[in-house]
Specification:
Elements (H helix, E strand, L loop, with lengths): L1 H14 L4 H28 L4 H23 L7 H128 L1
Helix pairs in contact: 1-2, 2-3, 3-4
Length: 210
């Protein structure tokens, strides 16, 4: 860009020191060269796949053609006629028209992009809502499980308490069993001794009678 602007500024300053006719010719030629360079830059942008460059190239084509015709007329290569006289104005009008089309196309693309963003936003909101509902279900399930756990824990505590009571009863029973067993043995021994005594007494009676 600087390689185009700096020479143009130098030529513009030099033209102030030259005769009017020569200065006009130099300035006109400079305009023609700059127009061709700008058009070439637009073509490069177009070949790189830029969508707005299509409209810019289409508009500047008419302008560059009009400028070149005017330059050739100024240098006496072409005679004065409708295209050489009004080509620049016609090209400028084409530039305005195609730039307006480029702006409308850009607005249309931005509208489509905005619609896509809104659709993506709605999708994200839907996914977020579904995830929130899923998490809410998990929380409710966890709350239900917590209540069941509390009830089960209460039952386990009751079972533990009952088991402790049974253990204490069993321990008390185990302590009573030896004394009970001793009493039982004593009773059996008493009965046995009584039975032996009866047998011995009965034998003595039979002996005396004989």
């Amino acid at each position: 860009m600087a390689a185009v602007i700096l020479p143009s500024l130098i030529i513009a300053v030099v033209c102030l020191l030259l005769p009017y006719d020569l200065a006009i010719r130099i300035a006109t030629g400079l305009v023609g060269v700059l127009s061709v360079l700008i058009f070439a830059g637009n073509l490069i942008t177009l070949f790189r796949g830029s969508r707005p460059a299509r409209f810019i190239v289409a508009g500047f084509t008419g302008l560059v053609v009009g400028i070149v015709l005017y330059v050739l007329k100024s240098f006496g290569v072409l005679p004065g006629m409708f295209l050489t006289e009004w080509g620049v104005q016609i090209g400028s009008s084409l530039v305005v028209i195609f730039l307006s089309l480029a702006l409308a196309d850009r607005i249309n693309i931005m509208g489509k992009d905005l619609a896509m963003l809104l659709e993506e936003q709605r999708e994200h909101e839907k996914e977020t809502k579904e995830r929130a509902e899923y998490l809410e279900g998990i929380v409710n399930t966890a709350a239900g499980l917590s209540e069941k756990f509390v009830r089960v824990n209460a039952k386990l505590q009751a079972i533990t308490a009952r088991f402790s009571e049974l253990s204490m009863e069993q321990a008390a029973t185990s302590e009573e069993m030896p004394s009970t067993f001793e009493d039982l043995l004593a009773s059996v021994e008493t009965i046995y001794q009584a039975t032996i005594s009866q047998k011995i007494g009965g034998g003595e009676i039979e002996t005396d009678g004989g």
